[in-house]
Amino acid sequence: MAFKLINNPITQKRLSRFKENKRAYISFWILIIFYCISILSELIASSEPLYMKFNGKYYFPPFKYYSEDIFMENGRQTRPDYKKIQKDSKFASNPDNYMVFPIFPYGPYESIQPSSIVTSDDVKVIFSPMPMVASINISKDYIIQKSFSFGYVIDKDEKDIIGLSLTSFYQLSEGIRLAISRRFANLESDSSSYKIIGNNKKEMEISLSPFSPRSLPPKTVRLIFRETEAKKEKQILTFNKGLNNISKSELWDLLSDENRNIILDYVEKRFIGVVDNNIINIKNRFYTLSFIKEEVTYPYPPSGVHFMGIDSTGRDVFARILYGFRTSLTFGIMLVLFSMGIGIVIGAIQGYYGGIIDITCQRLIEIWGALPFFYIMILMGSIYGQSLILLLFLYGLFNWIGISYYMRGEFLRLRKQPFVEAAKCMGISSTKIIIKYILPNAIVPVVTFFPFSLVGAIASLAALDYLGFGLPAPTPSWGELLFEAQQFRWAWWLILYPSLALFIVMILGIFLGEGIRSAYDPKKYTRLN
Fold first, then answer.
1. Rounded distance between C-alpha atoms, residue 22 and residue 56, angstroms
2. What is the CATH number of domain 120-294?
3. Global confidence as pTM
């Protein structure tokens, strides 16, 4: 019957219309190709060699289990660490022994050793300019009576400032003068700020705090100076283990010998361990010094062969995504087939027989659909543990209800058609009528909903894994990677790549579903028997 259905002219016409929708047709083949690649994941990304020669014998780890005792003769029957064996003297001493690893020699469960990741041995000293803030107290004739860091603002020695007039460094506007005079007159004044450019061309902001009248007028008024914008960007000096400055920054030449010795002392300590930030003064500007040395801590950003980065437990993100795609799509297909199978059977029975059977089943379905799926899944998971089969079974028990409604409606419509009545008159059994005559004509909702149900299943699995109620650890999962991204929000690669993979698969599934739906005329269900 399946061969007859596929070769039916109407089916061929629908296939032709589907191919005309290029977006859907291309999406279909992309999903097929990606899934086929994921099926062969062990041959693409794995910590086990594709094949190996050891002491004159050939071994094929992807297809057969070998214990560690075979290679190390240590009596252990556990799974061997092939990369460790490759470095062992028993293997390396014999040139006839060799291993051939996949294109990407890292598996989804392998914790990558930090020593295998190449990092820079240099120490970077980052000079971050601190915002310039100073204050002075002036008398009524603008003579400076007290100063705090004002020398850095006007490029003058701090001890020579007291007794000088503010007007010798700045042209004070009428607004500033009025604000100062109101405070000396003991009048209530709001806070105010003004931008001003001094003789040294530095743009500053002068601020005056709110003022309330006192019993006696103030003898001095405080002015606060703030730099409006940083004139210098961050600068970086790089030092190698010989404490040589290998960067081309001119900042090193501006440092005094004392500051250079201080920096070199901190750099030397940073090669050994962690040091705190420091503050240094260069040409009347304070800088915060940060001493950075690249170290391997997980999660680790993309670099070298790990072009998608490493997760929080040292596993390669690309391998996790590749294997996660196979897990997600396999789960989605199995779930959709399982739930649709249940929905088709129950919907067919309801629609074909009708009457008391239909009413009873409808009431039971309503009761079943009211059960809290999420709580049932948590309860069953706590009793039997997390597993793919349990998750598939529980999800399938609740996911069939929607398709049963569509199948029930189709069977209710088709059971009164003349070709069904004729089959009954010929004495054909109800089972044969349902399977051979009605089901091929009622299958349209199943076909059109399949891609959308598949997308929904993949998204549901990712959501459950994200919440921690999905597949058991350490099964590769996109949702589990997104959960790690929530814990390490600075690890952008844990957010980007799983989200991108999930988005691509879902959008391809939606394009495929739209193409299949457009291939069927929703207003006409032509007989295929």
1. 53
2. 3.30.450.20
3. 0.73
